[in-house]
């Protein structure tokens, strides 16, 4: 490992970055001393965010494209295959195959993430995206199609595990919240793109193959980008402190990594920043490799409760279920577009994009807790309105539209981006890889559970009662956030570990 600390050579891009804008932000005293001013180049911070965010883009695209792909693949005239007559179980496997693959990817991440590092895990994720997209697009039969969906899903699981960590560990503290939240923005861009391209190809013979195959060039770009980017400096220094390689070589590699991430203009300050991080890690105590049982003890246990709680409530407060009713709600209100489910999906996707953009702009100014508390409060109100509409006020369609838009908007400024942001920040460095893999596993497992249970619960209880149940869960999540979730705005990752856990 000493000879391969996951570091690609510096390219001409990093030399060009010295022309970019420079930002200096003063920081408060930390732990045993004072931090130097945190210098960073805004343009230099873009690429370390952009290529990992492509992992989120492909995840969102898969969500959006699959809704049209299921229509295309079942069409006798447009599917272009002889096995188009799929039953409900097969359709379920097609739509949820990537989700089950993501669960597998999350389990794999628990075992390999700390060894591979964030950068190489994202490179493997890009490879899984590429292979999965090609297998799915070229599938000669249904079995191969499902295998392709599983492989693509493994890429999702790895990407959604490593991308928040890589972005959080390489982003400058003053804009860390914006950059990690932008990953959610890319997920929504992917959803809208999936809906849009799906609507273009849904009437094309074999259109579902194009819908899935178009992911492959994006995966190639992501893979090349992650090959070029440097390793996370914090991961390198963790390896150094744990003596998993030549210490001086790892420190030198971390310095080169910081230069590439911040711009070569800040070459002189990089060694000082590396020494600061090393001192902070030594003070916190990360020398020994984490054992499985330690994940459920001490600081990591608290971080696990916070992160798993957030991603669990993110899924079980009804987000997929509310969107399931979007077309019928808008149609009942007299919107002509509501007869076209794809256009309704695009319309809501654009609205989600706008509200996520609002969260990205204000997250590092207002903080995480205000957005979570305010957004989830709006979710409670919106779910109460939707439940009331289906039980008592079925002639007040405007109320349902208000509830729908309020839910979507509030989710996108709270649970949507803030959930992923908080889980990327809250874990101690020593247990971050394994702890975050458990949180991602909880996220996808809860997603699968809600997706599976929604239809039978709707038939058993009715939509109104189900929305009231979601409303009650949202109230519980509000209590959880108020008493359990800390504020991490403006703190370095080391400060969060020292002060919040």
Oligomer: single chain
**Count of individual beta strands:** 2
Give the biggest beta sheet: 2 strands, antiparallel
Proportion of helical residues = over 70%
- Mind telling me the C-alpha Rg? 23 Å
Strand order of the largest sheet: 1-2
User: How many individual helices?
Assistant: 21
% residues in beta strands: under 5%
Q: How far apart are the first and last residues' alpha carbons, in Å?
A: 31 Å
Spell out the helices and strands N to C: HEEHHHHHHHHHHHHHHHHHHHH
The residue ranges in which pLDDT falls below 50 over 5 or more consecutive positions are 1-5, 7-37
Shape: globular
Mean pLDDT: 83
Class inferred from helices and paired strands: mainly alpha
């Amino acid at each position: 490992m000493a000879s391969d600390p996951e570091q690609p050579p510096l390219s001409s891009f990093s030399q060009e970055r010295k022309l970019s804008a420079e930002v200096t932000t003063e920081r408060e005293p930390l732990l045993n001393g004072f931090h130097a001013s945190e210098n960073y180049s805004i343009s230099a911070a873009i690429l370390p965010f952009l290529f990992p965010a492509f992992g989120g883009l492909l995840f969102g695209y898969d969500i959006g494209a699959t809704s049209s792909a299921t229509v295309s693949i079942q069409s006798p005239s447009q599917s272009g295959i002889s096995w188009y007559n799929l039953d409900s179980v097969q359709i379920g496997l097609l739509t949820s195959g990537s989700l089950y693959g993501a669960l597998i990817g999350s389990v794999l991440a628990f075992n390999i993430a700390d060894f591979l590092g964030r950068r190489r895990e994202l490179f493997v994720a890009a490879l899984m995206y590429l292979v999965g997209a090609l297998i799915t697009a070229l599938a000669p039969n249904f079995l191969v199609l499902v295998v392709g969906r599983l492989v693509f899903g493994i890429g999702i699981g790895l990407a959604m595990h490593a991308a928040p960590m890589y972005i959080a560990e390489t982003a400058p503290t003053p804009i860390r919240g914006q950059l990690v939240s932008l990953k959610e923005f890319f997920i929504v861009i992917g959803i809208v793109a999936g809906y849009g391209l799906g609507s273009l190809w849904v009437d094309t013979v074999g259109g579902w193959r194009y819908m899935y195959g178009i992911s492959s060039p994006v995966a190639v770009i992501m893979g090349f980008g992650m090959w070029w980017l440097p390793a996370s400096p914090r991961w390198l220094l963790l390896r150094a402190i744990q003596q998993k390689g030549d210490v001086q070589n790892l420190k030198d590699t971390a310095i080169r990594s910081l230069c590439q991430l911040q711009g070569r203009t800040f070459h002189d300050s990089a060694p000082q920043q590396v020494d600061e991080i090393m001192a902070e890690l030594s003070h916190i105590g990360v020398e020994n490799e984490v054992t499985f049982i330690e994940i459920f003890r001490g600081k990591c246990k608290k971080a696990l409760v916070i992160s798993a709680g957030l991603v669990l409530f993110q899924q079980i407060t009804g987000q997929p279920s509310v969107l399931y009713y979007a077309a019928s709600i808008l149609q009942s209100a007299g919107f002509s577009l509501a007869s076209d489910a794809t256009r309704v999906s695009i319309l809501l996707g654009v609205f989600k994009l706008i509200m996520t953009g609002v969260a990205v702009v204000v997250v590092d100014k207002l903080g995480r807790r205000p957005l979570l508390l305010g957004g989830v409060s709006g979710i409670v109100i919106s779910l109460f309105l939707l439940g009331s509409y289906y039980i008592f006020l079925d002639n007040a369609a405007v109320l349902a539209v208000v509830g729908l838009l309020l839910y979507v908007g509030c989710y996108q400024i709270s649970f949507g981006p803030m959930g992923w942001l908080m889980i990327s920040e809250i874990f101690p460095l020593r247990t971050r890889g394994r702890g975050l893999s458990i949180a991602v596993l909880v996220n996808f497992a809860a997603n699968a559970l809600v997706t599976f249970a929604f239809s039978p619960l709707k038939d058993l209880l009715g939509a109104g009662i189900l929305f009231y149940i979601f409303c009650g869960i949202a109230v519980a999540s509000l209590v959880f956030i108020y008493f359990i979730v800390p504020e991490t705005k403006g703190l370095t990752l080391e400060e969060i570990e020292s002060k919040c856990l």
